[in-house]
Amino acid sequence: MYKSGFIAIVGRPNAGKSTLMNQLLKEKIAIMSDKPNTTRNNIAGILTKPDAQYVFVDTPGIHKPQQQLGRVLNKNAYSAMEDCDVLAWIVDGNENYGAGDTFILERIQALHKPVILLINKIDQMNKEKLMEVCLNWSKVYDFDEIIPISAKKADNLMEVLKVMKSYLKEGPALFPEEMTSDHDLNFRMCEIVREKILLRTHEEIPHSVAVLLEKSEQKPNGYHLQMLVIVDKKSQKGILIGKQGRMIRSIRLAAQKELSDLLGQRVELELYVRVEQNWRNHEDKIKAFGLDEFDDD
Ligand SMILES: Nc1nc2c(ncn2[C@@H]2O[C@H](COP(=O)(O)OP(=O)(O)OP(=O)(O)O)[C@@H](O)[C@H]2O)c(=O)[nH]1
Fold it and tell me: How would you summarize the oligomeric state and partners of this protein (predicted)?
């Protein structure tokens, strides 16, 4: 009996959603960093097995929004939750239950869908601690399943797939077998650049950056890409460029390397930094940068 369906991966920022999805798919679909709210769009990763097709939707970490962008990100996440067959709520086992979890719990309760709790980062816990964490979480909600995992070490992920499958519907594959993501190449290329920025910057900058592809051209000596990096303050532009252009160069070289791997050929990347004052509070700009996936809601 073949099964297929959508699994929304939800959780607080930094819980490990993208790591989990990339591990399950054995391919880098979503970018990762230690900065909260790395993921902005709902990213579908598709895993096709002989007996089932799993369509994972990696949602932006749900959080109390401070800006218009935050509200849009939450809206993207909620929409994925409404459309899925089963919810996988991933939590960082090292973190205590907090206000951010109540926020998610309220949403989950309203949906009446099967919920699998994944207690992540067990590689950082001993057995006693893990037992205590499982017990504490079992009091929070009547979860359909609780599975301790380490997304990073790919620990217990076969069990996760087995359990998820039991909640999928009987039916044919929803996407072609060879497809691993529903995001196009341009999006993935911009995300690679954004990841390199996130890995090198701190505080407000990671949240203030958007990356747009301006031009892509196939030339005899490889692929030429021009990308625009948008920040929301003039001071951030200076930081991103760095002393004698060192920071932007380091971002460019790291991204260029990964882009070459992705495209399987030589890549020449040009980066420009532009200030769009306070863009995260302007709905038209959020839409223009492709971050509002449901702008007709
Ligand atoms: N030790 C350990 N670290 C992990 C594990 N899973 C994820 N991490 C780390 O936790 C951090 C956040 O992981 P992400 O996968 O980007 O988290 P996310 O939930 O997608 O975050 P947002 O995109 O901000 O919502 C990264 O530094 C990961 O390397 C794990 O199983 N063990």
Answer: Monomer.
